[in-house]
Design a protein that fits this description.
By secondary structure, the chain is of the alpha+beta class. It is built from three helices and four strands, in the order ββαβαβα. A hairpin with a 7-residue loop joins β1 and β2.
Length: 108
């Protein structure tokens, strides 16, 4: 499978969970149990997948292999990040929020 026109759907139940399916097949081959867990699929985009293409959070070879063998690929959400170990790396809004909470606790 060298080139696949793929439809990508976002889960309505789980942030950052996506289903990749061949556009020609659609969601027909996705098991019902998975669809119940996934929720109402929200179409994000269609794109051609080729081995040379880079994907942000998935290995293109694994995606293409799963599309060929089972007609879908489920991209799971990334694990939650812990900013407490590296507070300096946290987004500015999170650092401000943490500082505000510390100020309110010390004044009570």
């Amino acid at each position: 499978m060298s080139r696949v026109l793929c439809s990508i759907y976002k889960s309505s139940k789980k942030d950052e969970m996506y289903l990749y399916v061949p556009k020609a097949v659609g969601l027909k081959q996705v098991p019902e149990v998975l669809m119940q867990m996934f929720g109402t699929p929200r179409h994000v985009t269609d794109m051609f997948l080729v081995p040379e293409r880079k994907l942000a959070r998935a290995d293109i070879e694994q995606v293409l292999e799963k599309l060929a063998s089972q007609q879908f690929y489920l991209q799971m959400p990334p694990p939650p990040e812990s900013f407490s170990a590296h507070a300096q790396d946290a987004p500015a809004w999170r650092r401000r929020s943490a500082a505000d909470n510390a100020d309110s606790e010390s004044s009570s």
